[in-house]
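Could someone model zinc ion with this protein?
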Amino acid sequence: MSKDKVHIFDTTLRDGEQVPGCKLNTAQKIVIAKRLDELGVDIIEAGFPVSSPGDFKSVEEISKVVKNATVCGLTRAVKKDIEVAAQALKHAKKPRIHTGIGTSDSHIKYKFNSTREQIIERAVDAVKYAKTFVEDIEFYAEDAGRTDNEFLARVCEAVIKAGATVLNIPDTTGYCLPEEYGAKIKYLKENVKGIDKAILSCHCHNDLGLATANSIAGVINGARQIECTINGLGERAGNTALEEVVMVLKQHPTLNLDTNINTQLLYSTSQLVIENMGVYVQPNKAIVGANAFAHSSGIHQDGMIKNRETYEIMNPEDVGVNESAIVLTARSGRAALAYRAKKVGYELTKIQLDSVYVEFLSFADNKKEVDDNDIHTIIKSSNLDNSIVA
Ligand code: KIV
Ligand code: ZN
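Reply:
Sure, complex below.
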């Protein structure tokens, strides 16, 4: 059975760039946009054109160079925003306007001092106006995560009628539980008239560390687009990490869902974004962290050396990491030491290994990590006969 496609909507250059201190210039944005296109993302959200002349220019320049992906510009449900976005996108082969408004009671009351009926009216007007510029219109119901499902369904139905082709259901505050977010998507699939004419999109923030789980719950329940960023960058605790959702779908074939991403470019793309934005990922970050394929405890190392699958559920090469690392620390065992010693040229017999291991442990107790140079030092200072050569 052929797998259903989940569209990957990358918002590193818009939501991701909202990280304090992460501002990118146009040249850097172009480099990243070209790489995202090569990576195989379906949509690149290039910026929020009305927000500044710099962002306008970035969206305009990105529109000129992107070859395959749809290029998208964000707007509020405001005429001027929509006009400016349409102008910035005019060179794009496949332009999309992403417009929307807050739909939760809290947004309606405190942000807009408005009513539910007026919000629907503004949403419909924005979509209709955007439709006069481009065909592809995505509507976001900001704070959909905390919006009453019945009202959200009414908003969705109205904007589909007005011409929206994608419906973004953001968990703006990262509050939803996966079951709750999944149920929201299912409710919309089952209760919005005309939903078969539109794609539901997950846009989950990570305030409770649930962004990836919520996005996956969304696609299991019928959404077919995930909005995400490289390294999970974004406001506060960030957005859904692109590399995580893509690998979840790849490693779980029973979900029958697929993306167009060339996963072998994931690690180098993560590095490119780190270099340009100057925000590092934690070492234990899934998929792209420095320790994602590193093994340091003796029990794990022994299992890994016997068979990689004992402790790894994916092949590092599939995400562009050369190989798994067997890290030598005071918690490492003989198998790891013999493995690493062999890599630097020592074939140790069992008796030699016993002797080197004693030396290794006292060395490792005083150093966080034992490297290749240390292995030479340890072997030289071990009490061995001359048969051991590097
Ligand atoms: O988190 C959010 O609600 C957003 C919208 C502007 C799409 O980023
Ligand atoms: Zn967001």
